Amino acid sequence: MRCPFCGHEETQVKDSRPTEDNAAIRRRRFCPGCGARFTTFERVQLREITIVKKSGRRVPFDRDKLARSIMIAMRKRPVEPERVERMISGIVRRLESMGESEIPSDLVGEMVMEGLASIDSVAYVRYASVYRNFREAKDFETFVGRLAGADND
Question: Per its database record, what is this protein's job (predicted)?
């Protein structure tokens, strides 16, 4: 593994242990070149997944990009990071177990919306505002009104 600080080609693993959800291996590493310490995570990838965008463009699935978009929606919300990580891992497992190599981006977006709705309603609305491309305050009002209506059922 290359050192992210100095680019040294060889780093040493000092400690390995499973993550809390046992979905990855956490490795503490040391660089003999610059003395830096850093952590890497190793995950099993069952298959290569390609995301088909609305424009028809195809891009490789990127778990980190998925996590970043969810973390933006969750910013400053009182939700444990482990709960968010479990949600992300669950989405990835569902995508991998579908048996499809190409998955529409809409499906991934709906899975994220479903997960956020069960964790935090503010994060859900934040994500929806980008995913559904809200353009004005009226769009928020309509969406939140439907959300409130569903809660009363």
Answer: Negatively regulates transcription of bacterial ribonucleotide reductase nrd genes and operons by binding to NrdR-boxes.
